[in-house]
Design brief:
This protein is α+β, with helices and mostly antiparallel strands. The protein has one domain: Ribosomal Protein S5, domain 2 (2-Layer Sandwich), CATH 3.30.230. It is built from three helices and four strands. Strands 1-2-4-3 form a four-stranded mixed β-sheet, with helices on both faces. Helix 2 crosses helix 3. The mean pLDDT is 91.
Length: 117
């Protein structure tokens, strides 16, 4: 993922949290909002509710890798935040990928293709 494709500013996060929409699945919650740019910016978040720092970092790595392998990806023009749920602890990447795909599909950000390559 390129540096410009990562959601970083607190103002952008607050905009997605306050004015965006959300869609939940078993392991993740997807928050999204149109950004009127030619690219989609992504962020992966795991709160302290998920566990200690080791568990939170693993949750973020699982989400990041699942998104990287996802095909198709959401179209351009969105800010998307993936928030890990506590249920993500101890899950396999395939399960997390299916959960993320289902949430994105339910939000209408991607079509009905296969989530895994």
């Amino acid at each position: 993922m390129l540096r410009k494709d990562i959601l970083r500013n607190q103002r952008d996060f607050n905009s997605v949290y306050k004015k965006g929409s959300s869609r939940g699945s078993r392991f993740v919650v997807v928050l999204y909002r149109k950004n009127h740019l030619r690219r989609t910016r992504i962020a992966f978040v795991a709160s302290k509710k998920v566990g200690n720092s080791v568990m939170r970092n693993r949750a973020r790595r699982l989400m990041r890798e699942s998104y990287r392998l996802m095909d198709p990806k959401p179209g351009a023009g969105y800010d998307i935040i993936f928030v890990a749920r506590k249920t993500i602890i101890g899950q396999k990447m395939k399960d997390v990928q299916k959960s993320m795909f289902g949430a994105l599909k339910g939000a209408g950000l991607i079509g009905p293709k296969n989530p895994a390559k």
